[in-house]
Amino acid sequence: MPRKHLGVVTDGAFNAGLTVRLDSGVSTEEMRIGDFVVVEGERNLYFSMISDMELRATDPRLTADPPRDVSPFIAQALRGSLTYATVQVKPMQMMPLGEEDDFVVDLEAPRPVRTIPMHLATLAEANESDFRTVFGAEEMGGKYFAMGTPLTMDIPVCLNLERLVERSNGVFGQSGTGKSFLVRLLLCGVIRSRVAVNLIFDMHNEYAFGKQSEDGVFVKGLSQVFGRSKILVYSLDRDAASRGGGRSADRIVRIGLNQIEPDDVMLLAQELDLPATAEATIGLLGDRHGERWLAHLVTMAPPELEAFAEESGAHPASLAALQRRLKRLQRKAYVVEQGDFNLIDEMVMCLEKGQHVILHFGQHDSPLDHMLVANLITRRVRQLYREKVERYEETQNPADKPRPLMITVEEAHSFLNPSVSRQTIFGTIARELRKYHVTLMVVDQRPSSIDDEVMSQLGTRVSGKLTEERDIDAVLTGVGGRSFLRGALESLDTRQQVLLIGHAVPMPVVVRTRPYDDAFIAEMHAGDGRPKDAAQAISELFDA
Ligand SMILES: Nc1ncnc2c1ncn2[C@@H]1O[C@H](COP(=O)(O)OP(=O)(O)OP(=O)(O)O)[C@@H](O)[C@H]1O
Ligand SMILES: [Mg+2]
Predict the structure, then answer these.
(1) Cα–Cα distance between 205 and 209 in angstroms, integer?
(2) How many angstroms is it from 186 CA to the middle of ligand 1?
(3) How far is the CA of 495 from the centre of ligand 1 (A)?
């Protein structure tokens, strides 16, 4: 398929990008910043993006004294003679051209740009096969997942799910930009392709079961998309056990006071408004009662409190204050005095078998519940994964190899803000990369509130519109070509448009997110997502 000719390269520099004079018949209004174009050099094809546009005049008199009230006809006549437009183009990937024709091109993988084309190289609109060459296509194998289409074209743009789950990722965007929809899409892709198993903290009750969307449409949850054999729902909410219509949970989770560690409580210092002396007091309680410290504290009668303060040297008033605050935990319906890890251990066994687990919070959806439960469960899960990996390293037996696990967590700043990210298990997982085969998908509307160090570890970032400078900076941490990506982020629509950057895509790209609707869900049921063999995939590609 020939590409539409747009202009020729007239100027450029490796770092600054290329200046292309547009053909007189091509209007700047046909293009958008961030559009994907191809520069055809003599030896290479350059996959590039439009980063800027400029209007120019050949005759300074035109700018100094522009004619008034020109008819469209005159304006058209001036175009190309007195007036012209240039676009600034940033090469992102290049591919050596084949000997005779560009057919050969489709077989080689694109690589990072190391050079630039000479003057008069042509700029052309990217066609479908260019998109396939760069981003892959779903027909090429289950690891490719179409996220959407470029804003001005109707061509699927894929991300590579195997690469996605290799590192921790982030989904960002202001409220209402479609993060939860993106997460549903990504999870569907990961589940269908089986590149990882998922543990999903469903903090706002939107992933396990269906939910009414802002437009009043009923949106299916993952358990309805994939069925209960693949998705297990664990709930904190007792009522969720008895609901009908496929909306009941498989297991009800209980947390024992004995399972809550001093670090879990310190993480909640702000939520619980703990006194400044809390850490020291908890230390004294721990020395005395071990894992039963909290159960003891919340049940001590005033004389016992006094006695304990006296013998341990704790400050009586702060001990009493601590007790009052921590009774809030005891009053939670899902907290029991004595709990064990059987349920979480079973959860990990299910994950091992390839089932996906959603932790449904139900009516317990305050930040306090999120932080307490997600941290506690994740700590245990990671510990078990760590043991598995260590066993596998010893035996090298393929049967012991743990499946990669991706943990999805919304409101990620609660766990990953700079003041807590060093203490939470989520911070640890983000930092240790995929050493224990566990990665995160963090979802947040304020990326600037997440620790920089964590942000810089995120392999793939998917972001909807952001307007605050700090948030944009955070999403672009450690990414090259920031100034133009910043423009792309700011100019997104407020819904269903995202910038994809990082490990799972060969170059940053802006897409209109594909709809999560009945057609999509039917597609998830269709193929089993297993990669076809390479020869078949390639022959199909060229038949298309
Ligand atoms: N891919 C999509 N398919 C269908 N509808 C979408 C899609 N993306 C966004 N929408 C629409 O945008 C609305 C907001 O999306 P969503 O609830 O995912 O936003 P959000 O970023 O998670 O917001 P919040 O930060 O408040 O949780 C949805 O109710 C839906 O109508
Ligand atoms: Mg949401």
Answers:
(1) 7
(2) 14
(3) 7
